[in-house]
Design brief:
Length: about 575
């Protein structure tokens, strides 16, 4: 049982007790019955009036609650529709709790509505500012309705992207503006159109960052850069021409220094000054026709060398040998020089490769020549090791370079429809001939050294060996390598020589003392050739046959002939 019901029962019991007490009092007093009825009726009316008043107040409260619930429910339904939220559920609540919950819910949703509307106004204001700067279309959203959370998120994302795009365009505008100002300064140009004045002169924040304006900015910058590039090309052509004419006309350095500023910058005033200098030099060129043509001929000869022109190709340009110096002859030489320069630039890699091969080949020949030089062993700085390493590297790199050049030359001959000549012959044939000449030179040097060695041995056999100073001092008692073998060999030869009859005039006047001195000289003779011959099995039988008793010569000259096979 509820406590309110208990309280109601107690109230009824209390009223009953009160009436019973009144009854007892009335009995004790002796109030008649009719008066008792009157007094009881007064009590009843009083109690009934009090209860009716209380009931009326509570009923009024009920009605107010119902009215509040109904009005709040209507407002809540409208807000749920505007805010795109689910309707309010009122099941399982009393009237008082329902009214309280609805009112609280209504306050929360009114606050949400106010916040969304306020956020929408803020975003709309930001959108209008960005649209004014970028000349874009505002975001599509209904300003008369309350936006949903998804719409607000989409609006914020759109404005964030738009802000980033605005910052990017502004950065691009600032960069392009700076470049435009630099180009205009270099071109000595002032803003002509209203757009150029807006770009250069107006405040950066006031410039409309529309796509069309950014495109126009890029186009303007491209036009200015094209004109700047064109001016630079014109100025560079003027500078090249001026440099050539200075060299050909042998202009003094003092006059050249007066143009030093204009030879670096390419502004409008620089271009005008360069053009005026070209006109002046052209007039001076006409007055010094012979010197100019001879200077051009020197350049033509230089490019002939770089392009490896043969004598026939050079003679084909007949104006080169003309002595009648005219304007027409000058024009022919200038045209030939331009053609040669273009030809060289088009095939620079090939010509530089051939030149690199020639330089490497010259260095290789120098190193090969040093191989036969005995003085190279007397170095103290490690030059011998460096030279050998360099020579080995060249032996490896030269064939690789020749192979690469062969591929390039094949392409060149296909393009030019003629053979690539160096010194009047095909380059690869020229390379093969150089290798063949090197091989023949090596063989010739080897034969000369062998002949010289044989002649020295023959001379030593006839006249004895000259005393040589050893390169290093030997320790006492250290035997010379091969000394025992050489001593036995020469003792055998000396026995054969002593057995010969001395019948030639060359033997007249030779005393035993001279013979003894020759014997001592023979003991010091370098036996390289003889020891090599003795180590050769193919020659050993012939050597024994030549020095046998039956074939011993009767003179020193005959003996020297016999000794040649051994050497």
């Amino acid at each position: 049982m509820r406590r309110s019901e208990i309280h109601a029962a107690e109230s009824v019991e209390c009223l009953t007790r009160a009436l019973n007490r009144l009854k007892d009092i009335w009995e004790e007093i002796g109030i008649p019955e009719d008066q008792r009825l009157q007094r009881t009726d007064v009590v009843r009316k009083h109690i009934k009036g009090l209860l009716d008043m209380m009931i009326a107040e509570e009923d009024s409260l009920r009605k107010r609650l119902m009215s509040s619930i109904e009005s709040c429910r209507k407002e809540l339904d409208v807000l749920c529709t505007e805010l795109q939220l689910s309707p309010f559920e009122d099941e399982g609540r009393t009237m008082l709790q329902l009214e309280k919950d609805i009112r609280s819910r209504l306050e929360v949703m009114m606050k949400q509505k106010s916040q969304r509307v306020k956020e929408l106004k803020r975003l709309s204001k930001q959108d209008r500012e960005l649209c004014d700067i970028m000349c874009s279309v505002p975001f599509c959203i209904d300003m008369d309705t309350v936006p949903s959370l998804e719409q607000l998120d989409s609006y914020r994302s759109y404005l964030n992207d738009l802000t980033k795009e605005k910052d990017r365009r502004h950065g691009e505008f600032v960069g392009i503006k700076r470049l435009i100002i630099v180009c205009m300064e270099e071109l000595d140009q002032l803003p002509d159109t209203s757009f150029e004045r807006d770009v250069v002169c107006e405040d950066e924040e006031a410039f409309c960052l529309s796509i069309d304006n950014i495109t126009a900015l890029r186009l303007l910058l491209g036009q200015l850069e094209d004109r700047k590039t064109e001016n630079e090309l014109v100025c560079n052509s003027y500078r090249s021409k001026i440099q050539e004419l200075w060299e050909r006309l042998q202009v003094l350095q003092e006059e050249r220094e007066g143009m030093s500023d204009h030879m670096v910058q390419s502004r409008k005033r620089n271009m005008d000054a360069l053009e005026a200098e070209c006109r002046r030099l052209d007039e001076l060129k006409m007055k010094n026709m012979k010197n100019v043509i001879e200077a051009i001929r020197a350049e033509v000869a230089l490019f002939w060398e770089r392009c490896f022109y043969s004598l026939e190709q050079r003679r084909a340009f007949t104006p080169y040998y003309d002595v009648n110096f005219t304007v027409e002859l000058l024009n022919l030489h200038e045209a030939e020089l331009l053609s040669l320069k273009k030809h060289y630039e088009d095939h620079r890699e090939l010509f530089e490769g051939v030149t690199r091969w020639q330089d490497s080949w010259t260095l290789f020949l120098q190193l090969e020549k040093k191989v036969t030089d005995p003085s190279r062993f007397n170095n103290r700085g490690g030059n011998l090791l460096k030279e050998e390493k360099q020579r080995a590297d060249l032996q490896k790199s030269l064939p690789k370079l020749e192979k690469s050049l062969k591929t390039q030359i094949d392409l060149w001959e296909e393009e030019q429809y003629r053979e690539f000549l160096v010194n009047g012959q095909r380059f690869l044939q020229y390379v093969q001939e150089q290798w063949e000449l090197l091989r023949l030179e090596k063989e010739r040097g080897k034969n000369e050294r062998l002949l010289k060695k044989n002649q020295q041995i023959e001379h030593d056999l006839l006249y004895g060996t000259a005393q040589r100073t050893p390169s290093k001092r030997r320790l006492a008692g250290t035997p010379t390598p091969g000394k025992a073998r050489k001593s036995l060999l020469w003792l055998f030869f000396w026995d054969q020589i002593q057995a010969l009859p001395l019948r030639t005039p060359s033997c007249v006047g030779r005393t035993p003392r001279m013979v003894e001195r020759n014997k001592e000289n023979i003991s010091h003779l370098n036996g390289t050739g003889l020891s090599g011959a003795l180590r050769n099995p193919a020659q050993s039988p012939a050597s024994h046959r030549n020095i046998s008793v039956n074939s011993v010569a009767s003179t020193y000259s005959e003996f020297s002939v016999i000794s040649n096979p051994i050497s």
